[in-house]
Structures are given as structure tokens and as C-alpha cells.
Amino acid sequence: MSRGSNITRLGGFNRAVVFDAVRRSRFGISRVELVESTGLTAQTVSNIVRRLIEDQVIEEREPIFSPGRGKPRIPLVVRAATQVSVGVHLDPARLTCVVLDASGDLLHRSSTALPHTVTPDDAVGLIADCTHRSLVDAGVERDAVLGLGIAAPGPLDITTGTVINPPLLPGWERVALRSKVREATGLRVLLDKDVTAAATGEAWSRAHADRPSFIFVYVGAGIGAGIVMDGVILRGSHNNIGEIGDLIVGESLEEGGRRRVLTLGQACDPISVVTRAAQSGVVDADPSLIDVAAAEAYFTSICHRADTGDAECVEIVRGITRGLARGIAALVNLLDVQTVVMGGPAWNRIAHLALPQLPELIGARMVAPLSPLTLQAATEGEFTAARGGAAMVLDASLSPHASALLLV
Amino acid sequence: MSRGSNITRLGGFNRAVVFDAVRRSRFGISRVELVESTGLTAQTVSNIVRRLIEDQVIEEREPIFSPGRGKPRIPLVVRAATQVSVGVHLDPARLTCVVLDASGDLLHRSSTALPHTVTPDDAVGLIADCTHRSLVDAGVERDAVLGLGIAAPGPLDITTGTVINPPLLPGWERVALRSKVREATGLRVLLDKDVTAAATGEAWSRAHADRPSFIFVYVGAGIGAGIVMDGVILRGSHNNIGEIGDLIVGESLEEGGRRRVLTLGQACDPISVVTRAAQSGVVDADPSLIDVAAAEAYFTSICHRADTGDAECVEIVRGITRGLARGIAALVNLLDVQTVVMGGPAWNRIAHLALPQLPELIGARMVAPLSPLTLQAATEGEFTAARGGAAMVLDASLSPHASALLLV
């Protein structure tokens, strides 16, 4: 059932709209410009700005006088360092951490390799440590921290803040990560799926675009997708959107000549790629002993050999590229979204080899090419998901949502 | 950039919220119940109701007295027949037409087989005819008609109202269907993709559910999907969401023993199924001469033979079921939506054979089974997409949208 709205909610919404416009302006925005961009009256803008200044969340910069114009332009800017958020990306192999100010600018970032099999308690301790150190290094006062956003591998139960049983974190069975980290840090904690957080981070860095639509494809120890449509980050019924590893992208020849279907996960993830390379003798390793860490090392060496022209390794990277093309074409056709953003550690290693071929391979499979495919690299490299975690906190705390107008 | 809101927009929005609550109530809703369901004050509800009655869009029913209670309950209902919409589904083989009142109740429906290769001009004439006849048969005054919604095969250019080049409508190259039908009928016309219209129709008939999420899978001359997430009908960047025919679902054995990947479209659509059946001698036809009409006839006979236990035909239907399961599992995993609604003429023919096996086959492939799969039949059978076309008109004309609060 739809809900009505009223003037109190309206006031809060308009305050958030004005604050958001100030926050997203790179070099400040004047009251006159705010009237134009928000559609509010000059009187309403003036009242809201006065209260935001009194509350110390925004401030005036030096007036700018233009020759021939009477009144100077006074840029309004966010007192960015007074409201700060932390983002942590828990990858099976690595912990990345960022601190953002309220403008979304990066104050600090760090990245640490994780031990081979990290236990939940170790992970909570490491998250608390890196959060504490990052805030100290960034010189941020504790009471300026809005919260901590964690990007973690799915599946997750978002309602209880629980990591259920991620395939690459053995022994993690229904870990209440959100409450454990809240206890360990004393901060307000948000938890979301890694690919959804990464998509949030990308949407954030595209705030200039009007309601962007894109598919974020993460290629790391596993493969997954985040989906942003018309500026809305899609989440699915249980916040577990984006499981694309089981899409069939071709077939593979097994030992003994048997043919089997090949999934996108098998085609692209380092463990599967390196295991096949070991089976066919391209790398000198026992195929049955390839774990996350070994896969990362051998995958890197395969990419280096492909760079030097090693024919077998070039063909392995081509196979990954063909698999990605087939899977991405299926997503583009299903979702009618033609902007694809690529990221993740495994992608970063093959990007320079795959990018020359990928757009044409995908384009050839597009059913209704109403607009050309745009293929982009994630703006923040390996920090995309951590940045997305921090951006989720800013979004939850500071952004206007039309749904906030509805009475609850 | 986010836009603010103001009191004029607020008034229009709240009026739409109240009207929508009255429209969706099956047996009327009182002012007291409206206060509860909309969250608006008694004074606001009372004012809006007075104006809606003055404008003759809603009316009061007989007061209902309850023993022991002072004031009688006065149900408010929509004067449904004063605001009516028409929906037409243009399928390559068939034209279906419905008339709905403002409550969404069916006033009239009809279905006509189309000639083998229908030209755009013929189609426009047939749409105008069936619209005119349906309104006359339903006894609807012309000025009560809000508009006509057309559900057509994609790809479409919605901004210009153009059907681009649907694979099963040969010779349709950029047909400006919306403006042609507007000229021929004098009505306001909306155009949308068939599967999106069908999803709209299904969402409409689930109005009791709070922000439903489901995937609508249409199996007809072609296969496609509509996606509803959190009550929002997803459309994609160009309103062409739902192309799933190219998803790979397995492999097929070609003549000469060559193996090829098998797509969902090839696994399920009647032309492909019947062509393979003709190649292997299961049906007695020239494989190179199977068109839409022939495919429909042979497909029906294959299903009848499967019903009687013919082993070859049972295996053909099983193959379709396996393909559907693989494709639907990919959609469920990607989108994290566990309710799947099946519809379309080809589905209707195999439903009783496929339904006993499909849920288990899909369930076995679900990556994160956080909630069990729910598989349902479309509520309106072959009229789903036409009903969706009419529902789109009601939605566009009558429903409250939170985005309507934003100043433009």
C-alpha cells in the first residue's frame, strides 16, 4: 500500500537534498546555484543553508567578486572532515581499508594480505585493527566517524548481518560479522556483498552522471556482478544479487576426451584456470593442490608469460577473454544495460591483454545493439569495494532518498 | 542531481495515494481505514475524499452499521466504469485485446489469430478494429477511455514509439506503431515490450503483496523475461530488458556428429524444437520449411503425443524442461529473485508435463537457496500481456509515484 507524505518529512528531505548538492559539488556551490539545481525557492534554500551552517556541517568560503556583477558569489562547501566514514573489503586473500570524508574524498587507504585460512575471530581482530590505525593515521576524531561499511563475499544474511558460508572462506558457517565488528570497534556497522559494495563505490564516483546504469563485473578469487539501473543499486530479494559463476559460456574437454559444459566461474577464476593449466602441463604443479594462494601466484606467472608471447599462456588468457565475453553478452542482453565496468585482482592482471578483444567479442553477441557497448575499468582499482563500503555509510547517513518522504 | 519537493506537488501526490488506496480495495475502504493505510491525517484524508467525490471519480456506498459502535462505516469505491483502459497484445501469431475498469476488473476480452505474415498497416487496422469493437461490446463511452496500451515484441524504441525489427515479424523495419495507432484510434497510446507488459499485468494482480519481486518467463514463438524487483518493474536502458534466448543451457548434437552449444531459445521455442524433431524424423515435415504457424501446429501435436506416452515426444518435452530449468536457475542466481511466474502459449501446452520436474531441476542449481523457489502460472493465461498493456495505462494515469514528488 502506498503511503502519503507530510510537511515535516518534506523539510527533512529538502535539507538532505541541499546538503547532498553541496557535498557533491567539487569546488563549492552558491545559494543561487542551489536554487537552480534543486528546484527549491530562494527562501527555502536560504533557510536550510542557515541551519546547516549553524549545525557546523557546511561552511562559507571566501566570496568571489566578478567584474560587472553586483553581488559576490559565496561558495558553500561541506566541512568534510567533520563527518567521515570507514570502508573495509574482506576478500579471501586480502583486507583493504579506506577512510572517506563527507565529500567522498579519500583520506587514507591501506591493504594487507590475509593468512591462508583466516578464522572469523582473526578477521574481526584485523578489521578492528586496520580501522583503528587508519583513523589514527588519517588524524580523524572518533566522534566524526559516521560508521563502518564492510564489503564481504556472499551469500550474506543482511537482516542479521551474517556471513553464511562463502565458498572461499572454509569454516565460516553463519558468522555474525556485523555485530562482532560493532562490538570490537564500537562503531555503527553496515554489511553488504562485495560486488554490491563495489557497484555502490562506482555509482558514487559517477555522481555527475544522471541516474547511471551499469553492470559491475568483479573477477577475483570468484566472479560476481553488481547491477546499477537508473541510479538504483539493485539488491535482489536477499541482498545476494550477482551470482554469475554458474552461467554456461562454452564447453571444455576433460581428461579422457569427455566434454563438459564450462561455466563462467570455471572459465575465469584463478583456481580453475591454474588447475586446468596444471592438468595440461602448462604450469608445473599438482592439479589437486591448487588453493587460493597458489592459484594467485601461478595465475600471475601465466599472465607474465602471456605478456612475453608464450603461446600456451596467450591461449589461456584468450580462453578467459572468450568466456568473459560470452558471460557479459548474456548479462547485457538480459538487463539491457550497455555500460560494463570491470574490476577485481584477476581482471587487473589480464586487463591489458583482454581489453583489445573484449568489446568486439561482446558486441558480436548483442541481441539489440541500441547503443554501443562501453567497457570501462573500475575507477578505484583494488580499493573499489572498500570505497563502496564507506560510500554505503555516507549514503545511509547523508543522502536524500525519495522513499524517505513516505511515512513509516 | 537530486531535486527538492514542495507543497503543490505534495498535494497531487497525496490525492493519487488516496485514490490508489480506494482503487485497490476490493470492497471499499472507509475514511478511518484510509488514515491508517496512508499515514495521512484525518483532516487531509477528509479534504481529498471530498474533492475526489466532487470530481466524480469515487463515490460513497451504503453506510454499514455495526452493533455497539456509534458511527457507521461508509465504504468509498471507485466509480470504476468512468475511467477505463484498453490493452492489446500483438503476438506474431495472435492479437489479444482487453478492456479494464479503473479497479483493474476485466470488462471485455477477445483473441484473434493473425494472418501468416501480417504487415504493419494490417496490424494497425486490426488493432483499431478490435479496440473499437471491444469498447462497443463492453458498453464503454468514448470519453471514459484513459488510453490504449500496446504490448509488442522487441526490440522497441520507446522514446519514438517504434517497433525496430522483431525477428518473428519479417518486414517490420522501424515501424512507428505508437503514432500510427494513435492516428487510427484517436486514443492516447502507450507502447511497451511484451514481457515487460506481462510483468506489469502480473504485478497488478499481486497488488496485495507488499513490493513483490518476481521473474516472468514468457515462452511463446520466442522466449523472454520480465523482471519485477521490490515492486519496481525493471526496464533497462532502452526498455528492452529480458532478452534471454541467447543464454547457453547445454549442447546439442548436430547432423554429422558435430556438437554445438544449445541456447535457451533453441531449447524451447517451437520453431527450433519442431525443426529438430523434423530432422530426427519424429515429425514428418521438411525441416527447412517450418514457419511460425507450422511450428505451432506440430508443437501442439508433439505435446499431445507426449501426453499419450510416446517415448520420443516425452523426451522432447523433457529436453525443453531441462533447458528451461538451466536458464531459469541462471536468472534466479543472477537476480536473487526466487519467485518465477511462467506464461505464454508454448508454456501453456507443456505446463502439466514440465511442472512436476521443473522446481527440483531448478532448485538443484540454485547457488544460495536462502528461500525456496516458488514457481507459479501466470494469473491471466494468454491475456497476461494485453492486461499488462491496459494496466500500464492505469499506472501512468492514476497511480502515485514517489518520483512524482520531485520537481521537474
Automatic annotation (TrEMBL), chains A, B:
Keywords: Kinase, Transferase. Gene3D superfamilies: 3.30.420.40, Winged helix-like DNA-binding domain superfamily/Winged helix DNA-binding domain (1.10.10.10). InterPro entries: ATPase_NBD (IPR043129), ROK (IPR000600), WH-like_DNA-bd_sf (IPR036388), WH_DNA-bd_sf (IPR036390). The keyword Lyase does not apply. It holds the Pfam family ROK. It comes from the Bacteria. One of its GO terms (molecular function) is kinase activity. Belongs to the ROK (NagC/XylR) family. This is Putative NBD/HSP70 family sugar kinase.
